[in-house]
Design goal:
about 550 residues, alpha/beta, 17-stranded mixed beta sheet, 15 helices
Amino acid sequence: MKNLLIIASCTLSLACTDLKESAQAPVIDTVAIARHIEILSSDEFLGRKPFTIGEEKTISYLAEQFEKMGLEPGNGDSYFQEVPLVELKANPDEKLVVNGPKGQILLDVGSDFVAYSERVEQQIAISNSELVFAGFGVVAPEYGWNDYDGLDVKGKTVVVLVNDPGFGSGDSTLFKGQTMTYYGRWTYKYEEAARQGAAGVLIVHETVPAGYPWLVVRNSWSGASLYLDKSGEEYQCSIQGWVTRDAAIQLFQASGKDMKNFVEMSRSPEFKPFSLGLTASVGVKNDIKRDVSSNVIAKITGAKRPQEAIIYSAHWDHLGVGPVVDGDTIYNGAHDNASGTATMLGIAKAFVESGQRPDRTLVFLAVTAEEQGLLGSKYYAENPIFEPRKTVANINMDGVKNFGAMRDLTVVGYGQTEMDDMALEIIKGQGRYIIPDPDPGKGFFFRSDHFNFAKVGIPAFYASGSYEAMKGGTARIQELNDEFLSNRYHRPADEYMPSEWSFAGIKQDAELFYLLGDQLANGEAWPKWKEGSEFKAIRESK
């Protein structure tokens, strides 16, 4: 892997003369970072879910820490940016009822399906809605692909596959091969079904192409969920949800059609959508609560070009109190994302203690409701405090690894921006090499807050040492990553365990993020999106 992916140090398009000479490695206080993680992920903070006492404690703590460090409020005279949200607590029917020529199928909520609605209505349902199979549910003109071609789905419920046609195909020219495009994200599936006028949409879950097991789906889309409060502005399907692969197979068998190889048939350029000859009925009752959450924002104002900003971001929220798993109900979120939030605090502290005011403004933004669909960063991107065209870059921290010193820097979305080249120059001094995300099919580039900065054209960087340990190599990291995904991700077991956490890797990453921000804040460079990036045109139009 290493010999394939060591990257040249500076591209022609990023003038090396525009970069400030590398600063000395900062003093990163890992003891303080550890203490922040311990506090933020303690049971006292109740899993840091928006609209709860956990939110009140979290945002107060972050604002207090920024103020103690001597950082200025980032939103006028306030450390907070209000984010209006609506909480919909979904209470779906116990059964999804499917009728067809061969009789009735009853799917059980939780074990076979999840269903909810983003419509701000107390009661909503689909009743005897015709089920149609639309393959991957993708309309992508640039790839000559339209899974809805010739299909009228108004008032109907579409069944679609997770990810996009390229994943698992073995064809690197089909979409982006193993690298997930935005067309593979579940959010896109819902958006496209709504654009087509569907009444309902059900995504077929499979662990490998989804990137997470069914338990994550069940926990994440059950109970209360948050959305930006934009009631009535956009059409939403009445019912959105997921079905397990086994449940989908029951439907396909009941359709009487030859669908033994339903994934392969959906990858074919000749694929045409079709009715399954079945109808579905399910309802959802919503408890509706409107409230305001908060992004927390602080800054160090630039001495020479204060209107130009570099934004560090990390989401402060997690899942709160949820279903019992192994006798525990508090989803503490130590790794996801107390680690990123605490690392951002550590970087802010290092900048303050350097005693040097940067030329450009440094912004530290802790966003809300990432776990509910990147809502805090989406709100900021749509209601920016610092103009996007004058925002130099975003450096995002989400799940900074605690596995000890690392040999690699894994860049999610590698090849998108010139910050990759800047990062390589920095990590050479740490004895590390740079690689793309080795599992691009899981679409991590679309699953954290940097994505909302990218969508408005701001070059975004999201990376962490996560592939090869200094001690134990790739095998050890694979084992630790597998264990986390299987037993801790989005579960109460994501807790801070001092005896098991090592901060050497966190220190490496924090130093990198500091030095990258320092170069940008004290130089002339405007890192660009690279050729082939879908975000390049957005930036250049600003």
